[in-house]
Amino acid sequence: MNSAETPAKPGQRKLLFSAGLSWMFDAMDVGIISFIAAALATEWSLTPQQTGLFTSMNSVGMAVGAAIAGIMADKYGRRAVLLWTLLIFSIASGLSAAATSFAVLLLLRFIAGFGLGGELPVASTLVSESVPVKDRGRAVVLLESFWAAGWIAAALIAYFVIPKYGWQAAFIIGAVPAVYALYLRKSIQDPPRFKEQARAGAAARLSVRERFVSVWASPHRKSTIMLWVLWFTVVFSYYGMFLWLPNVMLLKGFSLVKSFEYVLIMTLAQLPGYFTAAYFIEKFGRKFVLVVYLLLTAASAAWFGNSTSEGMLIAAGICLSFFNLGAWGGMYAYTPELYPTRVRSTGVGLAASFGRIGGIIGPYLVGMLVAREVAIGAIFWLFFAAILIGAAAVLWLGTETKGRELTD
């Protein structure tokens, strides 16, 4: 990244990099799950329903964690909640390596998901509040680009580590962020606008019920409806498609190692997807990026699900990664801009939490449909329809926030 692409001040670049690394570790954990699911299905003879339940359990924890952490971050500060959620998910991820039964593994994945789901909306809110308006959208999309780095790391671990050392080694690597949290404790501070409100005591006086009511009050109701539909459809389709990618490759006749190799190639396309979205989001606006990238994601999903040759499969997978992750960047940049400071993290957390319900349903639904021998092509047409609904919600209900100052 050059200086034209990142926030200008060294302190802002340091914040972006520090929060981005925690984001990368989150993505690595989620990404590893998709590869571990494929390995576990073979080693533990899991049924498709069990595989779907395993990949969904992370999202159950994330749904709970996003809602609770969002509310706590508005009350106790972004920095404190970011650190605690990072520690929770790191420790649970490391302990997952010692799981000896499917039930214990599910419990640990719920706890890891709780921490992970809590960290993501808080980190995006923190960066959004700390960067000037002219760089804000770009900065949050670049923060999201660390997700691609995490997925690439997960794919590399899957390709080089899991076949040789087993899935347990991948979980142990997932515990590394616990050490990084010690560094974050000194390098990240709460944004000035939150500190000002904290000194005034306005945010602390709000109860949980008042925060929820405020998010659904008339000034924000239209935006909240739009965001909840957007988050649900994007998370539903993303987790339904990407957590099953290695298994889909297996179902299409490729070996485990070969499927990991192809998914790694597809994952590399996420980075240019983020970087183009980071450029367009400040040039053409949030709605433009979200609608265009979502429409192209839908087309890519239909193409991928119905590809018949190896070349078409890889090309469609690259397009799917490129446009889907670019849309994610736009969504994370857009969401905090629609709420005032005192309930911003609550609004982001609740939208993310509702979205995670889609993340629970998506992978589990795929498992059920695969068990019933529904064609992969038909399953991906379902994701095509869901993504179109999300794009329509933004187009009709969304308001453009490009160049708008955050409200207090």
Structure overview:
The chain is globular, with a radius of gyration of 20 Å. The N terminus is likely disordered. Helix content is 82%, strand content 0%. The protein has 19 helices and no strands. The longest helix is centred in the first third of the chain and has 34 residues. With 408 residues, the chain is an all-alpha fold.
Radius of gyration: 20 Å
Question: Which residues form runs of ≥5 with pLDDT under 50?
Answer: 1-5
Helix content estimate: over 70%
How many DSSP E strands?
0
Mean of pLDDT? 84
The SS-based structural class is mainly alpha
Secondary structure tally, helices: 19
Q: What spatial form do the alpha-carbon principal axes imply?
A: globular
Amount of beta strand: under 5%
Order of helices and strands: HHHHHHHHHHHHHHHHHHH
Largest sheet composition = none
